[in-house]
Design goal:
five-stranded antiparallel sheet, two-stranded antiparallel sheet, 7 strands, globular, Multi-domain containing protein, nucleus, mitosis
Length: about 210
């Protein structure tokens, strides 16, 4: 009988895999949280999960540009986290933050050896996280007002910022926090979390304002 050999992951493959995950994760959040109309998305299967991806050319061009740069930084170990922030347009208030922290072994960039983890193993872990992201809509608070989004990339201080990109400070949201699953490619380890505000948080802020 022939022996089945599982394909190992290279550093480039790991960077491609993490960047692709970010693309699907961002699209899933933008769809689930109603940042764009549902008709701007179409269904696509990835990681054996039915996901919604945007069909709008301008949005896709923007995401592709950002994630291509992220992929370059991933290969050199310069990305610390990718953060997707949702802002209530009417209140001009940040209401939700999706954080994906990225860890990379110190020797991973120098070592060009293939990862001990197979593509199949990594994709199984990504599948579990993506299923969790998709199901999060069942417990997150309903968003009834129009929202905008920002993508924040936190990098090593030596990373060269592309032209037209703006520097941003930290985004702090006071509210509930949920820790998501994690996955590893053998080169990169990605951990996710969601921080969101509730109606109770708004009421507490109003009470504090009135008391001042």
């Amino acid at each position: 009988m022939p022996t089945v050999v599982e394909q190992a992951i290279t550093l480039k493959g790991s960077s491609d895999m993490v960047s692709q995950f970010f693309s699907y994760a961002i699209n899933a959040v933008l769809y689930m949280r109603g940042v764009y109309p549902a008709e701007m998305f179409e269904q696509r299967k990835a990681y054996d999960v039915n996901l919604m991806v945007a069909t709008d050319q301008r949005l896709n061009a923007y995401l592709s540009q950002v994630l291509e740069q992220v992929k370059i930084w991933l290969s050199s170990g310069m990305v610390e986290s990718l953060v997707l922030v949702l802002t209530d347009v009417a209140k001009a208030k940040q209401i939700e933050k999706w954080t994906f922290n990225i860890e990379m072994g110190e020797d991973a960039v120098k070592s060009r050896k293939k990862s001990k983890k197979s593509i199949k193993q990594a994709q199984k872990e990504i599948q579990a996280l993506m299923r969790q992201i998709v199901s999060s809509v069942t417990f997150l608070p309903l968003i009834s007002s129009p929202c905008s989004f920002d993508l924040l990339i936190y990098c090593d201080k030596d990373a060269a910022t592309p032209e037209h990109w703006e520097e941003s400070g930290p985004c702090d949201i006071v509210g509930e926090k949920i820790q998501l699953a994690e996955y590893s490619t053998g080169y990169h380890r990605v951990t996710g979390s969601i921080c969101y505000t509730t109606d109770d948080d708004d009421e507490e802020e109003e009470e504090e304002s009135e008391s001042l």
